[in-house]
Amino acid sequence: MNRRLLRLLLFLGFFFCDDARAGVFEVSLSSDDGDEHSLRWAVEQVNASADADNVIRFTTETVTLSKALPVLTNNVAFEAPAGGVSVGGETGYNSGVLLWTTNATTSFSGTGAYAATGSSIVSGIRSKYAALTVIGDCTADVAIETRSRYAYGIRADKVLHVTGDISGTVSATAGTYGASALHSGSKAFVEGDISGTITAMTGEYGAACLKGGGMTLVGDLSGTMTATAGSYGAYGMNLTGQLEIGGDLSGSISATALAGDGAYGIIGSSAVTLTGGVSGIINASASGTDAAGIYVSGSSLDGGSLSDAAEISGTITASSSGASAAIMAWTEMNLNVTGTLSATGASAYAIRSGKFDGAGGFVDNTAERVDRVALGSGAVLTGSVFLGDGDDVLTLSGTADISGVPELLGGTGDDRLVFSGWNGAYSSAMQGWEHLDVGMGSSVGMDALGSFSGEVSVLEGAVLRAGGAGHGDRIAGSLANSGLIELRDGNAGGSLRVDGGYAGGGSVGLDVGAGSADLLSLSGTVSGTTTLLLSVAPSVTELAAAEPSLLVHTRSVVAEDAFVVVDETDYGPYAASLSVVEDGTGATDWYYGVRGLDDEAVMAQALMPFLAGPIESFVPRFLERRAYGGEKGVSPEIGGAWVRAGKSWNSEELRGDAGSIAEGSFRFVQLGWDVLYRRSGKLLYGAGVFAGTGTETGSVSTPGGKDLGELEGTFYSGGAYGFVSRPGLYRFELAAGSGLHELDVRYAIAPKERVAAGSIFVSAELEVLLPLGYGVALSPRVQGLWRHVDGFSLAPLTTGRLVVEDDERIMGIGGLGVVLNTDCPGWYLVAEGTVRFEPNPLNSVSYPETGVTLETSGDRYRFGGSVTIGNRAGGVLDPVYWVKAGTMLASGSTDSFSHTVEVGVKVPF
């Protein structure tokens, strides 16, 4: 039934069910002489009335009592004028303003103030040895003061029942001890709200705003309760029975023991049920020891039942010089805290299981029971947490702040600490937990798990950060990982040791260094599949040069796919992988390292040397075209067209980051024309143009003989030359040209790629003839060659995009030849020894996505020689032709060589 409707029916029933017999007595006098229409007269009339219900109606606004009124023997309702009424005065010992000795029903219509003073044992409104029922709202103000002891505002020695709200001001003040603003000998029952101001004060001890055997408050506690004891024993609520608050405790409760022990916002020996929660303020402060905000000394604390949490969104504080607790219960607690819990003192707890021992400490309950505490967003705790015996559960979620908690103790039993959407650290303050659950949305660091001996569960979407700053963490129990175990902090060398079983399914993040890494060490059984997420700290080239790094160690034989790496080759040119090793003692290790380069990376290093090699063969030489003309029977002053063709067989060993051997052959044909050919005195000079093409085929392999792929290219070139010579003494020639190189790259496995690159070259050559006798001469020569070949990019599947850098270099060639039949018609022979020097034979390939650059180099020096056999006829228009064969070998490698054969003809015209 609706609460307000119930009030109305009870009120109407009281006044009108037997209204024919009800007596109404008017108080119009302020004096207390017993005359008609005085309050004393009205009380006497009520007692003498045969009616069951009576009304005292005040028409005066003040009544001053000279002594205690007679004890009421009938029910009575009080009606005040619009301006209210004030009743007060001296009542003496063991008295009250309104006093019954039988079960009584009363009500207060309008506003009224009932105040009294006396020596001791004074009550404002009391049913002595009986129950008291207040129909409707209790809007009256009651203020009682005694000079010595026991002051009561509203008191029922048995049940106190208020069918409406308590909205007035009720206060009790005792000079020495024993002040209770609201007092019930058995149980108080308030069907409405407590919205008024309740105050209790004593000079020494025993001040309670509400004291009784128990209490049920159907509505809210939105008012203010203040209890102050001059020495010790201050209570906002002091109950020996059960406390039930159905609405919200949104007001404030304050208890202060100014000079001693014992201040309690709410204390109850039976269960405390806070159905509507606490959104207000509860404060307890004692200068001595034993202060508690909510203290259930003999039972449980919950929000309606043990399966319902009491919602604490307000502020609860307790402070003392000794033991203090914001919330404490002897048996089960079920709390959801989103507010502030603060305790200060020598032994201070924000939440504690147990009770005070009366000597500045605590007593623990050794009986098993379950505490369930959730600390959510907005929760701020100051002081320790101790959940005692039993299988307790504490949940940290959201923005819960436990930075002010020096100890977070699970106590004994099978206790579980749960992180749910919470970011923070598991620290050494957290002790006594057998289970650690890291839930979705949580990121929990492991500051000191060396003493943790229980089970750890990391759920999907959760992160457990371990092994930070290169140190080791340990879980002495088991670990179930469906989320992420994160050891990555930029410093390789951290570790996580798990003594018990490990169940995979999630991920583990590890830092990898040069020969070192974070380590996951597992001593128990291993199940499931775990993905290893790797962060490579050094450069990849440093990683490639180091030994493989140990990532996971188990002390049992484990399936190879228990730990896998995603994208394990995502390091540009390097082939990185996870290797599994059984060490022969029953242990299994997972190593990660670079086992070498991808085949396509090795192939890429050989492309530029292969592509640029034909340039030297395409440099036109006056040596062959001129065919060593002299003075006798030879007419060298006539130019003409020339053609030459040849083939070379080449092999080059590259050493460095990606050593390989590139070998193949090159065939070419070249045409030229001496556009200008003149004699000036003893000098010949001229200029011409040339063009040609060639094809090149080859293959690339590792030094160990592994085939990496094939190459096929075409080279187009053209240019111009100029020369000056003095026949029989010297010659000087300058040539320049450009080329286009097209190359097909056929990897052993990856799809074919095609590239094109341009080139330019400049060559300068000087030769001298030193006659040794008839038809014989020495022929020393030097040649400088500069070349530039444009770089290009490729994208093999395994390495990703790569860039072959521009190739630009200078090389020098020196030769010493012996010439036979230098100046006569007919056959001639040139035998030449040659040395070739390349100062910086480096070849560079970069991988932009990974920032890796690989370099290889060939031989600086090559030595060899050639033999040229030619024929020059004596006629002016007779052709000149020649055949040349030569070879070049490297100084530092037996796998590097070049063999060439060339034929040519010049036709004068």
UniProtKB/TrEMBL annotation:
Keywords: Signal. InterPro entries: Autotransporte_beta, Autotransporte_beta_dom_sf, Autotransporter_pectin_lyase_C, Pectin_lyase_fold/virulence. Residues 1-22 form the signal peptide. The keyword Signal applies. This is Autotransporter outer membrane beta-barrel domain-containing protein. The keyword rRNA-binding does not apply. Residues 634-909 form the Autotransporter domain.
